[in-house]
Amino acid sequence: MRKSIKRIVSAFVATVSAATLALTAFAADYFTAPIAPANSHQTSSVTTSELKETVATTAKGETVTVTVSSVKTLSITSSVIKALDKADSVLKIEAPKAEIEIDASTITKVRKVDLSMKIYSSAKRAVVDMRSKKDFGCEVKITLTNCKMSAEKLAKAHVYCDGEDLGPVELNEDGLPVITVTKGGKYEIK
User: Fold this and answer.
1) Rounded to whole angstroms, how far apart are CA atoms 131 and 128?
2) The pTM is what?
3) What pLDDT is stored for residue 123 in this prediction?
4) pLDDT of residue 28
5) Distance, CA of 179 to CA of 187 (rounded, Å)
6) How far is CA 129 from CA 44, 55, 75, 133, 173, in A?
7) Maximum separation of any 2 CA atoms in the chain, in Å
């Protein structure tokens, strides 16, 4: 009986260890996300190096569109930001609750940009809670595509960063709230 329990515990520990190593390897250097050129509907899975190459070969002023399934863990390496800056292009990330854009014209310092965040919304407020509190070295435009606030509420809403009032919220042509940030933090629209 003891040997069976030891074997079960050993198998469980081995499985957890393998999963942890796989996640660590993924987070260390692989940004796996489908990518769709601005004029195409085809997608394919790419690594960080492939994303960097795609950005580097994009025509000046063009948009590279990447689709991700989640923004809970989302980092853009400094090499991708450098390639974006050199190509003078726009990186657009489409996620289930938001669209995120980095325009090369706003890059002031090439560095890793940690865009890991939680996004949630109710009838009274919308929140973008970023894991990072650091300066990004560029402007990051976040459009909340799944905002549950009414048009009337959004028309009067302000954006707050860690409690500080940043002014009225910007709305795009579809009436969706857009916040432009240069650093991490907790952003609330209310």
Assistant:
1) 10
2) 0.73
3) 95
4) 43
5) 9
6) 29, 27, 15, 10, 24
7) 68
Q: What is the pLDDT of residue 127?
A: 97
Beta carbons within 10 angstroms of residue 26's beta carbon: 12
Long-range contacts of 31-34 (CB under 8 A, 24+ apart): 31/75, 31/76, 31/77, 31/80, 33/66, 33/67, 33/68, 33/93, 34/66, 34/67, 34/68
Residues 6 or more apart whose Cβ sits within 8 Å of residue 53: 83
What is the bridge-based pairing of β-strands 63-67 and 90-94? parallel
Question: Sign of torsion, CA 122 126 33 38?
Answer: positive
Distance CA 178, CA 102 (A): 13
Locate all alpha helices (DSSP H) within the chain, ordered by sequence: 2-29, 48-56, 78-87, 151-156
Contact indicator for 87, 55 with CB cutoff of 8 Å: yes
Q: What is the mean pLDDT of each run of 10 residues along the chain (190 residues)?
A: 44 42 42 40 49 76 86 89 90 93 95 94 96 95 96 96 93 96 96
Question: Which tokens go with 123?
Answer: 């009838």
DSSP state for residue 10 in the 8-state scheme: H
CA distances from 176 to 31, 97, 115 (A): 28, 11, 20
Structure-derived torsion over alpha carbons of residues 29, 133, 116, 143, reported in degrees to the nearest 10: -130
- Report H helices in 30-97: 48-56, 78-87
Residue 118, SS3 per DSSP: strand
